[in-house]
Amino acid sequence: xxxxxxxxxxxxxxxxxxxxxxxxxxxxxxxxxxxxxxxxxxxxxxxxxxxxxxxxxxxxxxxxxxxxxxxxxxxxxxxxxxxxxxxxxxxxxxxxxxxxxxxxxxxxxxxxxxxxxxxxxxxxxxxxxxxxxxxxxxxxxxxxxxxxxxxxxxxxxxxxxxxxxxxxxxxxxxxxxxxxxxxxxxxxxxxxxxxxxxxxxxxxxxxxxxxxxxxxxxxxxxxxxxxxxxxxxxxxxxxxxxxxxxxxxxxxxxxxxxxxxxxxxxxxxxxxxxxxxxxxxxxxxxxxxxxxxxxxxxxxxxxxxxxxxxxxxxxx
Length: 316
Known about the structure:
Elements: H1 6-24, H2 29-42, H3 48-52, H4 58-76, H5 78-90, H6 94-109, H7 114-131, H8 137-150, H9 159-170, H10 182-197, H11 209-225, H12 231-248, H13 253-265, H14 275-281, H15 288-313
Helix pairs in contact: 1-2, 4-7, 5-6, 5-7, 6-7, 6-8, 6-10, 7-8, 7-14, 8-10, 8-14, 9-12, 9-13, 10-15, 11-13, 11-15, 12-13, 13-15
């Protein structure tokens, strides 16, 4: 089968079947996730220990702890106080509410774990939804997207950027400072807010098209791959490829590696590509296809802005 080994062919079948189940939602999304683990173990692609190792990973522990944190904030009244403050800023108009929520979440996510911020803002956003009679689905997805966008403002926001920094240093480059990617992060955050508000169109002019096209394709590849693995795993997998590609083309490595890292954390295509998306999936009453419908055009916009900014920050 196209030169693939039996394990590779089986893995593709499992991934294809999982995607169909996620998209159609014939069974619950959490049950589909468990079925993936069982299939990988039963087919021998992973050992039982490897298949269950994810339950002891940092994201899994953080996700469980976040629910405790969210409950504690509710009991102590901290979430209500935060909600009152943000509610005053947001006002009663939908457009202003979106702008305030997305900006606040993105700013906070730049310096702490995005999942923590999503969990903290979840009860706040739900309260605003109830008070102003706005469907939760119109607020929760933008809030989750903003948490992901905010992680691109500093290299502290996601492990992917720390790995990108290490890869660049190993390649003999100076590496990334804490705010090296801030212009990209701020630009794509603004783009994301504008997209949600449908406040305008992106007008960009690309002077050097071939490298830009390569970077766009690299972004899209990373954005797709990160739907099936962690952002750090995506950078570990594609980061060395990006460095080698840049060297082969006689280009600087920074734009290539940073584009991969940004794409790895800008996971808007599916609810499974970003832990925050999963957190709002149930409360928002979303379908799997909702994320694809909104996330696909947003991801393309983010890709274009990221590629242009990266080339301006690190010109050849």
